[in-house]
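Format notes (please read before filing issues)

Several people have asked whether sequences and structure tokens are stored in separate files. They are not. Every record keeps both together, in the order shown below: the sequence lines, then the token lines. Line labels are part of the format and must not be stripped during preprocessing.
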Amino acid sequence: AATRLDPIPPEQLAKVGLANGFTFILQGPEGAQVGLMGGDVREIDGSAVPGIVRRVKLFDGSLWVINDEQIIVFPVAKRDATTAEEGVGTLQLGDPGFIPIKGARDIDAISGNYFVVVGSFGRAFYRWRRDGMGEGDTFYKASREPSRLTYASTDRRRILAGGAEGSWLYVIGDSVALVNQPVPQNDGRKAAAAGPWGKASIDKDGWAVLVRPSVMAPSSAAAPPPRTGTGSGTGTGSGTDPNPSANSVGELVWRPRLGGRIAGVESLDGRLWIWHDDGIDVLRVENGLLVPDGSLRIEGPVKYFFPQRVGNAAAFVSEFGGFGVLDFVEREALASTPGVRVLDLDGDGDIDVFLSPKEAATAGSGSVGSSLDTGRMQVPTGRE
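Then the structure lines:
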């Protein structure tokens, strides 16, 4: 049994005398069984390790196991045929060594002694054993990145956020730095919001937003009837369709396109902002209907959303995606560059093309985007 199998590259198989094989992880609630399987997907040997195991790889006759607290290295050796029990594999895992590192997610070999490690902490090179270049068991050229941001607090000019892997201070819209300062354990969730467009609340299971518009849709433009959804949670509407449906009491039901839990809702600049496991969505309410106005997809979950004191911008904190600022700006206010600007405006995974007013005026009747509205767009999700 295994929760994850990864084929071992041929060059690594040759170093342990196997023709085919896999590394495996059998994850449990408190720890995992990891090890090697042969080409017949039968266990050769394994060992129990603590925590959530992220990756298992075989390099130069050693099995490297990554969890959230450390890297565990098992030497792989030939089993003594005179003492092996019947049915036991020809290889065995030796006594492990331990490399403390928080937040590692993956590793790859540069050579037999040098590795690159990446994860929520950032990235670094690792020298395993001492050689002519320096001491062993050494991380060097490390580049830290803000991640594992479990908690956050703000004074609307700066955001202090962090967790098990350290604390970061973000000057909103500017720089970010690693600091030695505890982070207050504030709750970033916000269950309800109201604005001139109406009222919105997160349903009790956290999988959908219920919107009651201040102006109901005319009967000729009513929301589509309830559909059988493919997303998680309760209520009506499809988890893969951005268009909301109406429930039995006339509320519009909206779910993130990729599913996932919703952390909060906010009314800002006459729009409804929703932050969730996969990013942030911005909606307008027009004639009693929800209209997508912008979206940001980022490694989540987005846990905090801080409207700014001046203007209509908002800063956000994503546990694995870091910090950022979102705002809507006039198209003409953006720097002039050749070509088109593109943006996934409705969050459907397809790029929507925007032309500048000058480009639209000179575009031919068959040009892409020549009939598009050149109003406002969201940054920084737009790219060229």
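For reference, the curators noted about this record: The longest strand covers residues 70-78. Residues 99 and 190 are 40 Å apart (CA to CA).
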